[in-house]
Amino acid sequence: MEVKIGVSESSRELVVNSAQSPEEVEALVAEALAGSKDVLQLVDDKGRKYLVQSAKVSYVEIGPADSRKVGFATI
Which InterPro entries match (predicted)? Predict the structure, then answer.
């Protein structure tokens, strides 16, 4: 699944491809935004950790990962 995180005072968003379920990610985000944690921590499908200060999170988009198509095939 793909998680997009908007960070305040940044023009780019952070995109994480995670093996976690949407419910797990939603619970982590809700916990961080509720103020019980100062840092939102996510792990991607390669085992890398992403840490974002909870106060800097503008938005979070949770959705299925887009399959990237390679080649010159016409649709």
Answer: DUF3107
42 by Cβ neighbours in 10 Å (0-12 / 13-18 / 19+) ranks as buried
pLDDT in tens, 30-51: 999 998 889 999 999 999 999 9
- Rounded to a whole number of angstroms, the distance between the first and last alpha carbons of the chain is 25
Within a domain: 68: no
pLDDT of residue 74: 63
Provide the CATH number for the domain around residue 53: 2.30.30
- Whole-angstrom distance, CA of residue 19 vs CA of residue 56: 24
